[in-house]
Design brief:
Elements lengths: L1 H6 L8 H14 L4 H6 L1 H7 L5 H7 L3 H9 L8 H19 L4 H7 L6 E2 L13 H12 L7 H10 L3 E2 L20
Length: 184
Amino acid sequence: MRAYHDDEWGTACHDDRALFELLSLEIMQAGLSWRTVLHKRAAFRAAFHDFDYHRVAAMADDMDGVMDGLLANAAIIRNRRKLEAVMANAGAAVALEKDGRTLSAYLWSFVDGTPIEHDIVRHEGVPCSTELSRTMATTMRRDGFRFTGPVVVYSLLQASGMVNDHERGCFLAPEGAERTEPIQ
């Protein structure tokens, strides 16, 4: 958990594959502990071709056979809706490319390409969703993404470094943190 916090969570990520992985893992985490997801991360990488979203999108061509195999895989979280969402989201990411956009450019456009830095005094004060995540969730669903409600989207914003919610006193918190966006 410490390595994930210190080396990944909240670090600006612009890599399409890594962003797809974060989105997929945030979907899997919904309703569960992050520790559970991290312990299953290697198995998810194996099941989803290291989160190569082109290959994951192709999995949907044999949805029944693929789903049977995924649901039989005790090493991953076996929630049909979440698994179907990962494959649908891979297709949405591929569709973005066909429109001349990358997944990174698409996601970062919601924050105008610049991380939003919050002044977090205590982590208990961090919201589950914000106006930004609600707007982003609506747009993502319109663009073919699934299981991307405001809470999952806000978790993605945090994990990918689009929003810096590191608590004051954390070495990753913004220097002299001042709110650049009200937390709602």
